[in-house]
Amino acid sequence: MYNVENIKNYILFLKRECGLCITLHPHGNESVITSSELITFNIHDNPYCVFVKSIDGMWQHCIEKQGKVNEKCKNGSFCGSCFAGVWEFVYPIKREDEYMGFISVSGYKSDKAESYISRVAREYNISRQKLAVAYSALKGNIPKKEWVDTLILPLCNMLELAYIKNEKNAVSETDSITDILQYIKRYHSQSITLDDICEHFECSRSYVSHLFKRSVGKSFREYLTGLRIEDAKSLLKYSNLSVTEIALSVGFGDSTYFSNVFKTKVGISPSAYRKK
């Protein structure tokens, strides 16, 4: 089946039962991923990537590097290390003969980890020790590509069918929600509000709220908080940052408020989550 709900459930199955770290990377202003709940799989959620992208300038660097991945992926699937030293498998998503983006299965250590860590630490003036601690959370055993192929190629087919179906049902609001979600994705760790979005895109609160709820299935605040909590969970697991430092780095202006929200969403406090 090719509806969004089935695609989402299959990805969750691959993540939970097979231990795969899956990220969907749309190319251009497509709509199946960016205008649905699948947008939640557009961010690498492994702790090393979360930490690296919190470094000033690294998020933009990652986006720029994706251009080269897109070009290489048009010729078929491949595997290798990203610029930060994360080994990944990459699979193209196509709509008939048109390239629509790629699927990344990442979270593995490179056999040249030391050189990657040293280069990133040097170029971005970041503590090599902190970088190495974050890097240690990556998986050491890289699976065989044949095994990953067996699990990911069906996902490619599901997405490709979804694109074909969605093309017939596209609406004029697609570009608007695509731009809004990309804007939130980029600035979710900063102090961003619904009013900021309305001002940036020159539209009303009611329009954005309606568009967001219908396309994503959540309110702006719920979606934003979800992104921040997921970042915080990774940093609590694999970094030595304090709860206050984590709260500030993921976008919460107050550590007490962060702790209350975290406990409401996760069921336990940040400190208890870290110990667990």
As for the number of domains, it is 2
- Helical stretch tally: 13
Would you count the extended β strands for me? 4
Termini gap? 37 Å
The main sheet orders its strands as 1-4-3-2
Gross morphology: globular
Beta-strand percent range: 5-15%
Flag low-confidence runs.
none
Q: How many strands, what sense, and barrel or not for the largest sheet?
A: 4 strands, antiparallel
The helix/strand class is alpha+beta
Radius of gyration: 19 Å
Q: What is the mean pLDDT? A: 86
Oligomerization state of this entry?
single chain
Tell me roughly what share of residues is in helical segments. Answer: 55-70%
Order of secondary-structure elements: HEHHEEEHHHHHHHHHH
